[in-house]
Amino acid sequence: MAKKLWNVAIAGATGAVGNQMIECLEERNFPVGRIKYLASERSVGKVLEFRGKPVQVELLDHDAFEGIDIALFSAGGSRSLEFCPSAARAGAVCIDNSSAWRMDPDVPLVVPEVNPDAIAGYTRKGIIANPNCSTIQMVVALKPLHDYATIKRIVVSTYQAVSGTGKKAIDELRIQAGELLNGRPAEAKVYPHRIAFNCLPQIDSFEPNGYTKEEMKMVNETRKIMDSDIRVTATTVRVPVFYSHSESVNIETGKKVTVAQAFELIRKAPGCRLVDDVASRVYPMPCDAAGQDLTFVGRIREDESIENGLNLWIVADNIRKGAATNAVQIAEILIKKYLK
Ligand code: NAP
Fold first, then answer.
1. For domain 6-132+323-338, is the CATH number 1.20.1340.10?
2. How many angstroms separate the CA atoms of 129 and 127, rounded?
3. Residue 281: helix, strand or coil by DSSP?
4. 134-161+199-318 adopts what CATH topology?
């Protein structure tokens, strides 16, 4: 019997995440029948490729989803709010990369290595949310430790790449670095301050409690995906790195986890790779994680200031595992287990 093929639309196909979704579908041999690329008026008529064949970009509008089985959204939150319901009404299951639907109780928030069974809840609204990039890599690494020793509290500080802000920010870092190295002033357009040779302790806007939206996403999403009893506090920082987010994570657990036990748990964990040989100066770095789908974990140490605690350093490609790969993995489970 011929393998069933699925019609897929990518809303935001011209963006950083959209481009990566195209590559992921190709690389992972996703059984695509028809592919549709959607974006704003600015991109209509532009030609991208799928498996070596040209595909014209069309306008993202309410009628764009007729005959589509799976709609991958990465066109920003307001577009997801506006167009996911139309796509779902047309019969497509939406997998949304924006933050628009993540905390909706009727929308599952899914990381396949952590809570794949939550996908079943897609029937409520026809929408599945992909978590924030920094949340995804953290829960992939922490899930085996939580299963073993029940994490009580997480303290995380992030070092996030500019590609997390999309194509314009990638250009901004490149241009600013060039200007500064040539002795010219650097103009900040995407971020509130210069990002080249700098760190910005602000990702997204500030909430009344003094935390940024990005920080509160890490708190709320981690609890929705992994365990609502975990206490989480976050500081998120933008750094002048193009691809891959890094995170310094401190956890307090219900029982002791030795470094040797943590090594073993991370070694066996789906989607993780242990990179920890400090004697040889081996640890995860964004330059090595870029272009990969795994979450890299290293610098594992016992926190000597508390009874049951660990420190970890977690690195992953934010555009791949933090966005496109995670979305395509969800689509793979969806067609295998749920869609007919
Ligand atoms: P990006 O590079 O700026 O791309 C934005 C995409 O959205 C482009 O395809 C753009 O089309 C499209 N778009 C913008 N306004 C539109 C409109 N009015 N109508 C239709 N399409 C429109 O941004 P990105 O980094 O790919 O991020 C896209 C989404 O994914 C955001 O919601 C972001 O929060 C989320 N996300 C990003 C990351 C990451 O690491 N970058 C990770 C997780 C989630 P045009 O080319 O026509 O403007």
1. no
2. 7
3. coil
4. Dihydrodipicolinate Reductase; domain 2 (3.30.360)
Q: Is the pLDDT of residue 2 over 70?
A: no
pTM (two decimals): 0.97
| Number of neighbours of residue 169 by Cβ within 10 angstroms | 20
Q: Ligand 1 — pocket residues by CB below 6 A? A: 12-18, 39-40, 42-43, 60, 74-77, 79, 97-98, 133, 163-164, 166-168, 318-319, 322-323
Domain ranges of the chain: 6-132+323-338, 134-161+199-318, 166-197
Q: Is 245 a catalytic residue?
A: yes
Instruction: Return the residue whose CA atom lies nearest to atom 16 of ligand 1.
Output: 40
The rounded percent of the chain whose pLDDT value lies above 90 is 99
Report how far residue 302's alpha carbon sits from residue 290's, in angstroms, rounded to the nearest whole number.
Answer: 28
Structure tokens at 50: 């799928």
Q: Where are the beta strands (DSSP E) in the chain?
A: 6-11, 32-39, 47-50, 53-59, 70-73, 93-96, 127-129, 151-160, 231-238, 245-253, 272-274, 295-302, 309-316
SS3 call for 287: helix
